[in-house]
Amino acid sequence: MSGEEDSVDIIARLTPAILRALHALEFTSRHISPGTLRELVKAVAGRNDDLGPALAASRAAQWPERLGPVRACLEQSGDAAAEGIAAFLRAEEDVQPMLAAYRALRGYARAAEAIYPLSAHLKPVSQFFLEAAARDDAELAAKLASADPARGGVGYMHVGGPAGTRGAFSLYVPEYYDPARAWPLVVGMHGGSGNGGAFLWSWLREARTRGFIVIAPTARGQTWSLMEPDVDGPNIDRMVEQVGSDWNLDPARQLLTGMSDGGTFTYVLGLRGDCRFTHLAPVAAVFHPMMMISADAERLRGLPVHIVHGTQDWMFPPEIARSAERTLSQAGVDVVYREIADLSHTYPRDENARILDWFLKGVE
Questions:
Q1: What percent of the chain has pLDDT over 90?
Q2: Are 110 and 120 in contact (CB under 8 A)?
């Protein structure tokens, strides 16, 4: 085959292999726990057998110069996905298997970020970064197709330093952003030892589908300043103000959410009287009745809070979340409580749609 034909064939092989690997990492991330690790390793084994040969073929081929950026995106994404799966398969052999498994799953964000630029050019990649129910939505597809992929100020970006820089943030603005209307905002906070550059990908698919802006901050320290909210709290406010100066944010639809320590910090910041956020959604979080001492009674009345917790959470037992529901409800908070039977201590991306249906109710 000619170089052109060869590269088209490689794209047709490598793209689905990468997306299958990403789906495998998503599945693993959703179901990971000490009790499921061994079975997940068995389930993932072999899921990326086609990825290695496709990467090798790409590296051996003579790509046309004009397709060099496509090649770079695919090979970087394929490497990150393959490394993530390989590291996960080795996790059981580590002295700290769960820590090794969580570390391996970081490959997902690197792979997603590398392949995302191709969403403007390759339909399977574009569909991957949409909610499943919207992947055949002709109106949305047309809206995305008409967006200029070279337009500045849209897509994902890292502000204040590379992805994961302490005290900085990552941002996603839908490619079809129109400043004529106010856009809902989701601020999503990572768990302990995580970072915003990785956590952004927990929300990008839904933001691209439904049309809202996402800020994913990175804590100043290894985790959020739970005992000193004035360390990370004002920094998050500055991020929102900075984004609001460049993009049109809807002040009536601003969601603060987070996983684990990020969920706990959602309570710490969100119950205070000076909090700017209109809705709170703590996930797999710690709640203690002592938090109510610094809470503002007037703010609590009717405050929309959506709690998500796993029955199988081995780090923070569900009794903590049940206590939060009782305490907040008694204080007048408008609480939605979701306890998920098969969820352990991990972020349930499949709950995003339900959270957003609640948060965006009445928004066109």
A1: 95
A2: no
SS3 category, 272:
coil
In a domain, 143, yes or no: no
Query: How does residue 47 score in pLDDT terms, banded at 50, 70 and 90?
Result: confident
| Three-state DSSP string of 6-50 | HHHHHHHHHHHHHHHHHHHHHHHHHHCCCCCHHHHHHHHCCCCCC
Q: What pairs with residue 169 in β-bridges?
A: 159, 217
Domain that holds residue 191: 149-359
Please tell me the number of Cα atoms within 13 Å of 5 on its side-chain side.
2
User: Is position 140 within any domain?
Assistant: no
Beta-strand runs (E) in the chain: 155-159, 169-173, 183-189, 213-217, 249-259, 279-283, 304-310, 334-340
Residues 153 and 105 in one domain: no
- The dihedral region occupied by 125, where left means phi > 0, alpha psi between -120 and 50, and beta the remainder, is alpha
For 250-265, the pLDDT digits (tens) are: 999 999 999 999 999 9
DSSP H or E stretch at residue 203: none
- Cut 0.85: pTM above it: yes
Residues 66 and 78: their CA atoms lie apart, in Å, by: 20
The one-letter amino acid at 196:
G
Boundary residue ending a domain (92, 110, 128): 110
Residue 1, pLDDT above cutoff 50: no
Same domain flag for 306 and 183:
yes
Q: What's the helix, strand, coil split of the chain in %, to 5?
A: 50, 15, 35
